[in-house]
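Sample log: DUF2795 domain-containing protein.
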Amino acid sequence: MSFQVTEVQKALKGADYPMDGAALADLAESNGADKELVDALRPMREVDGPNGVMKELKGQLGGDA
């Protein structure tokens, strides 16, 4: 599964970093993210901002839908 960068940004709108995977997944879920993205965020270690999230999702980000 690959995710659009904009999809991840929308899912994490309102994030108050630093946040761990569980908190990111809960936020994404409340923002209406797909289950696949929520599941990908849940095991993440704590990140200190959007760049950290993108780094953790590296390899799962794509340019095509």
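Observation: The two ends are 10 Å apart (CA to CA).
Observation: Residues 16 and 49 are 8 Å apart (CA to CA).
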